[in-house]
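Handout, tutorial session.
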Amino acid sequence: MNKQKRTVFYLSDRTGITAETLGHSLLTQFDGIEWETINVPFLDDLEKTKTVLMQINQAAESDGYRPLVFSTLLKPEILEVIKQGNCRVYDFFETFTRPVEEELHRLSARKAGRSHGLQHHPAYFKRIDAINYVLAHDDGINPRNFAEADIILTGVSRCGKTPTCLYLGLQYGIAAANYPLTPDDMTVMQIPKVLENVKSKLFGLTLTPEQLHFIRQERRPNSEYASLAQCQREIQWQESLFRQFNIAYLDTTRISIEEISAIILNRCGLKRQLYG
């Protein structure tokens, strides 16, 4: 069965992050469609809008279906031009702002960029501090500062520690360090000494040996490091270690970085640091 091809536009007078995030979340619920994605940030004047309108109409003619348009545009004159196109517009502000205004008995500011701007200075700098901490404590660097971490991820090489830490810092303002478990550690059934005093902050990441083998093959093809047998030994050892020392851990084989991070926060009782 051939997939239906449809075009989706994400339009915004600022970064477009909100429109894309919400729109993408909705579209993941629909199977059997091949999406052609067009992002248009900083759509803030009529000349640009006319060009986008032409793109929308061309996509409708090419696909044989009208495009979907997800919008967080705030200027009514810009949005009205887009609505003239052969498309289906889903405007998030139009959908949600008016009911909220009615409930709060006041009008919204209708100013672009507030959700990603610098008006919440403490939250912004908390994010920067968290990212700097993650970068300075990646892969076991500076373990003497691990006591300052909100959480310390641990696990064998290529199990997803670094990207998860970066996501925790960027999206939640969490100071996340990570420490690799190596084949040298496997000679004893003991957590590394450098982690003994911060055991309460530890959280393990694991995955299936087959998935680890696949990931390592991309990095070092046909090496002992990437062999399935070595991956099986390391995973079996680390999961036994986690259980022996009562370290919470998560199998990340079939879940995304976003889900991993949310699960970690929930299970560890950590709170998002970016909003007051």
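The second record follows below. Compare its token runs with those of the first.
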Amino acid sequence: MIRRRAELLERARALPPLSAAELAVLTDFLHARTGMRFGETKRYYIDRRVADRMAETRLSSFADYHALLRSEPGEVERLINSFTINETYFYREEHQLSCLSQFILPEIIRSKQPGEKIRIWSVPCSSGEEPYSIAIWLLENWALVDAYNVEIVGSDIDTDIIAEALEADYGSRAVMRLSPELINSYFAPSANGRFRLIQDLRESVTFTPCNITDPASVARQGRFDVIFCRNLLIYFDAAARMRCMEHLFASLVPGGYVCLGHSESMARISERFITRRFPQAIVYQRPEEL
């Protein structure tokens, strides 16, 4: 395995960087399939990942690799996986979790009976820290968590990272915001100082692949009461952001909520949502149907 990795690295280093025309072809290809826009400022990042995939597929010209992408969906998936950014940790943007339990869920259950389903969607879910954080937070901070059928779904375009989320084995950085009490309650020691989420928590979240720019892929997830879509729109251009918000709007039940990242806003993206300003966070609500 070590020898093979060294051979792949050597093969990738021997490949020339993409020309300006090749870079444009590749970035247009990625944008059409993911909504993410990469450009010349990300050249090193792009060249390195494309070279890795070309080395893996034993292709020496970009023309041949582009032809492979057009004919092999599996390679498209592997290329997209290599470009996704999955930096996160437990209890990131904790203020939104507090808003969820103190304000959003109490509003939602006004129109639900005990035992009814509440669906919460985390997209992108990365390696699982965000949807699992929702599960832990509700167990710790929402007294009515057992009175309703809470379903948490985590989705991502990166199928490799979904596999990691299902495994739920984390390093110390991922749990750095959790108290020792929470770690002891919800994790078991794993190899090399890592932490494995206990089985009950692993089973509390359903993971699915989803491309948020594809309406059919989004529609397959069903409709939700709350959607956490954080730190994704910053990678999209304006047109892709608008498409995504249209898809999320359609994925919400009337009266449902969207939580964006702290540096993101619905301004200049969509006027269909109501801006709700709670003490802990600004969130966006699909209007109730009349």
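Points raised in discussion: The chain has two domains: 2-83, 94-285.
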